[in-house]
Amino acid sequence: METLDALLGGFATVLSPVNLLYALVGVLIGSAVGVLPGIGPAMAVALLLPVTFGMEPTAAFVMFGGIYYGGMFGGAITSILLNTPGESASVVTAIEGNLMAKRGLAAQALATAVVGSFVASTIGTAMLVFLAPLVVDFAVTLGAPAYFAIMVVALTTVTAVIGSSRVRGFSSLALGLAIGLIGIDSISGQQRLTFGVPQLADGIDIVVVAVAVFAVGEALWVAAHLRRTPPRPVPVGRPWMSREDVRRSWKPWLRGVLIGFPMGALPAGGGEIPTVISYAAEKRLAGPDGEFGRGAIEGVAGPEATNKGAAAGSFVPMLSLGLPANAIGAVMLAAFTQYGIQPGPLLFEREGDLVWALIASLFIGNVLLLVLNLPLAPVWAKLLRVPRPHLYAGILFFSALGAYAVNLQAVDLVVLLVLGLLGFVMRRFGLPVLPLILGVILGPLAEEQLRRALQLSNGAVSGLWSEPVAIVLYAVAALVLLWPLVGRYARRRRA
């Protein structure tokens, strides 16, 4: 009852006219910023930190919460329509979402993203209210071996099920891992694969890689085939989801929350790993008769719900432990510090009114997102009717703008072009793009956890499976890799 009373008090605070206006402004800013490739919600909050210095803390955090959820959905808009992820957690949505848009189902893809976001965010935020202490207790017990095993499962699972062949999938993964090695070794301090360019010492930002491989690569591919394939009018599709669309989407929505929330609550979590696992799970469940590879609505509903569930879960370590699970968590911790508030286990006790107002604002912002974006889905889908030369010229412009805005370095523009050419070559030879992105994201994290696990075990390899959770996860990875061989052997025996 104390929890419900505190939450009702947070709603009373947020539903005041001033705070409700700040929530609406946050949702609008977040949606607009999420649409721009490379300028994600974390950067939006960071840019607004100086502006909110004179604001009352509750109003500022209500607006930050709206920016967070709005930015998460804004990234899905460009992923579906333009194959250009607005932020890294929307990378997986682009795979099936853009194929749906090319089939004339853009409005349905956007609608399932909107409704899935609402369902997942509402359930995830409710889980944040009631299950936060339990999830925190579990997350704290996991060590480096378990974290490394989680990343191994994510890498092997997705690479094994994506693409026309495993050789191409693992080749793409190797390219991503190589790009992830660029920068300074965190242990020895030596530069790796920087080729004497000092700006590469900090590595290549994942947003630059994602925008280059997806957006620039797609634009170059379209430009290469523009004269050969005359443009065909793309139908916008029905403005709402049909009963069949809802039937195919509601299970991925629920599964997405169950995958995203606990993984988002891990201190080393984020939205990238669970969305990848969700996509792999939905593709596996759909089987060979599914529409994956041609535009499956499950491939949009599952990752989008997972993304929002992970976003809700990321507030667990931030509010309870003072540990950021992603970039925006780190920026919001900086905002707490700006107001002289110390995040951690005592935050709910010392700043209970502020924390519960922030949680309540997530519910309110979620409703505002649904009300604003569901009617706009057909309007967003009409972007596909823009002539392709104009559309892809705009994509290249905003891609370059977003890549430059990450670090304000001209070198990032060169990296954008080089990786864009790599994306073009990968499309030419049929290499899937997602394993490369996954390798760039998880490669450095997996290396860090691997080294930490080996240090704890004094270099003994057995330290990698010193936790029960790690053993179970390694068994899952081995099953995924060996299952096709087992099936082939069984078919030969039957023959």
TrEMBL record:
<dbReference type="Pfam" id="PF01970">
    <property type="entry name" value="TctA"/>
</dbReference>
<keyword id="KW-0472">Membrane</keyword>
<feature type="transmembrane region" description="Helical">
    <location>
        <begin position="169"/>
        <end position="188"/>
    </location>
</feature>
<feature type="transmembrane region" description="Helical">
    <location>
        <begin position="392"/>
        <end position="422"/>
    </location>
</feature>
<feature type="transmembrane region" description="Helical">
    <location>
        <begin position="353"/>
        <end position="372"/>
    </location>
</feature>
<feature type="transmembrane region" description="Helical">
    <location>
        <begin position="109"/>
        <end position="132"/>
    </location>
</feature>
<feature type="transmembrane region" description="Helical">
    <location>
        <begin position="429"/>
        <end position="446"/>
    </location>
</feature>
<dbReference type="InterPro" id="IPR002823">
    <property type="entry name" value="DUF112_TM"/>
</dbReference>
<feature type="transmembrane region" description="Helical">
    <location>
        <begin position="144"/>
        <end position="163"/>
    </location>
</feature>
<feature type="transmembrane region" description="Helical">
    <location>
        <begin position="466"/>
        <end position="486"/>
    </location>
</feature>
<feature type="domain" description="DUF112">
    <location>
        <begin position="20"/>
        <end position="438"/>
    </location>
</feature>
<feature type="transmembrane region" description="Helical">
    <location>
        <begin position="323"/>
        <end position="341"/>
    </location>
</feature>
<feature type="transmembrane region" description="Helical">
    <location>
        <begin position="20"/>
        <end position="49"/>
    </location>
</feature>
<protein>
    <submittedName>
        <fullName>Tripartite tricarboxylate transporter permease</fullName>
    </submittedName>
</protein>
<feature type="transmembrane region" description="Helical">
    <location>
        <begin position="200"/>
        <end position="224"/>
    </location>
</feature>
<feature type="transmembrane region" description="Helical">
    <location>
        <begin position="61"/>
        <end position="82"/>
    </location>
</feature>
<keyword id="KW-1133">Transmembrane helix</keyword>
<keyword id="KW-0812">Transmembrane</keyword>
